[in-house]
Amino acid sequence: MATQSARAAKMNEKRLALRRQYWPDVPEEALWHRLKSKGFITIPRVMPLVLAILDDMSKNHPLSSTYFALWCRTFDENMVNTVSPEQMAFEAGFGGQRGSQTWKSRMQTLVELGFIKAQPGGNGPFSHVLILNPILVIRRHRETKKAKVLDAKFNALAGRASEIGANDFSIPLGKKK
Q1: Helix or strand or coil: residue 5?
Q2: Is it the case that residue 156 has pLDDT exceeding 50?
């Protein structure tokens, strides 16, 4: 473990040295620091690929903004207690009279594709949301061919996961419940 920490510290110093070289006039206070600023979340490094695959799986009805808005409200428990459908829709980029209806439709698609589970409550059918591991969901779709996962994006996802040391491609999928 000490080796990993020493290696991480060394890489951090290298990145900081490069940052200072490229942007010497940018003060530390101008940067967002996850340990010093409030309101941060943890986002998987594969998230851009996950979002692109999500949009591919739902032709002409992009899901990425809805999914990302949910992710931005989650904590380590992977659960979101949503606010009003109107506010959730607005945060996902859906405004106007049909905004909340569009959001609800996208949420239903996320449930059907298995990326989230939902329970009803005071804010409607999606009051309580559980976000499942998106890599495992994508792998399951790839295996069952229930939704199209493009080869190039799946391979890029697997490659990026390997690059960052994620073990999500070695976890047995088992049977879906």
Answers
A1: helix
A2: yes
Q: Which two tokens stand for residue 99?
A: 């905004």
Under 8 Å between Cβ of 162 and 169: yes
Run of H or E including 129: strand 124-131
49, 160 Cβ separation under 8 angstroms: yes
Q: What is the DSSP string of 137-172?
A: HHHHHHHHTSS---HHHHHHHHHHHHHHT--TTTS-
CB atoms within 10 A of CB 126: 23
- Contact between residue 73 and residue 80 where contact means Cβ atoms under 8 Å apart: yes
CA atoms within 13 A on the CB side of 171: 15
The 8-class DSSP code of residue 36 comes to: T
Q: List the strands of the sheet with 116-121, edge to edge.
A: 79-81, 124-131, 116-121
Rounded-to-integer distance, Cα 132 and Cα 114, Å: 8
Question: Distance from first CA to last CA of the chain, Å, rounded?
Answer: 36
How much is the pTM?
0.85
Report d(CA 126, CA 83) in Å as an integer: 9
Please provide residue 31's backbone torsions phi and psi, each rounded to the nearest 5 degrees: -110, 150
DSSP 120: E
What integer is the mean pLDDT of 59-64? 93
Q: What's the confidence (pLDDT) of residue 163?
A: 92
